Amino acid sequence: MKKKIFMLFRFSAAAIMMAACFASVGLVLPQAASAAAGQGKLRILATTYPVYLLARNVVQSNPGAQVDLLIPAQTGCPHDYALTPKDMQKLAQADVLLLNGLGLDDFMLKALPNAKPGLVVVDSSAGITPLKEGNAHEDGDADHDGHDHAARHGHEESAHGHDGHDHENGHHHDHGGVNPHAFASPRLAAVMVKNMAQGLAKADPQNAASYESNASAYEKVLSGLSERLATLGAKAPNKGIALMHDALSYMARDGGLEVVAVIQEDEEAQPSAGRLITVAKILREHKPALIASEPQYSDKAVQTLAREVGIPAAQLDSLASGPTSPSLDHYEKTMNNNINILEKYFEPR
To answer: Which of 178, 267, 298, 325 has the fewest Cβ atoms within 10 angstroms?
Structure first.
């Protein structure tokens, strides 16, 4: 069997699991990716849409590098995604693979042995302490500061609280009980951008200054969004919000809001009548200021609940999916729109 060699930056449990998929593990020099791309552009492959959006801002001024998205832009959160032959071809051509991490890329586990020798793997979520999956008031022990979830679920924080094998915890998505949608937080998106820049700088040292400069500039943009979010909860007389899906939990947490319910626990299926009755009861009890839907899912359940309990509904975009050819500023434009909507419902009147 031909040896598969890769470089792993910013170790995480998910990335280490991926490493185990290789028949033989070794390290390559940082110059290896640049050398591999010597006959053309450095091929950088983002596993998921939000990683793609952020990575393009890190790479934008480097004509010698190209960022591609592995899976279709409209896929959303790829919990059960099956790679196509076209996807496998992209992977085979990639010099650098940018992961979301936190278990969202586990669909890659079986595919990595087909990657190019010398593939550089960068975990963009390294250092992020994830929220508990389904983080909401109804859990009884919701923790809105983003800490101590690893300890609660018996996982090591250094491994993001996720070992990829916790399938007995009652969750549908097998993320080991953690919420992998950190990209919906501008503050954590800035951490992801920094990790990407550091990984790319090591993989392509000739352009390290460009990656780091772009990342620094973009982190300031994301910090501005984060500051806008942070003022919401401080002003809001009613901090309660209900979410269609827990991808928006990070945004709510950053806004100082309290998630009282997550309507759709299984994103592969619409909530049952029983689930809607349960959520309606929670909403009547806690009376949140808003029920938030997402463009990634049908808003039928949200509209039904809004009519039933008399609470307004609005759509917020987690950026889990989007247009195939987005503008370079798509992330911040979408997030600014989200914040505008939140301000409408949570600022004092």
So the answer is: 325
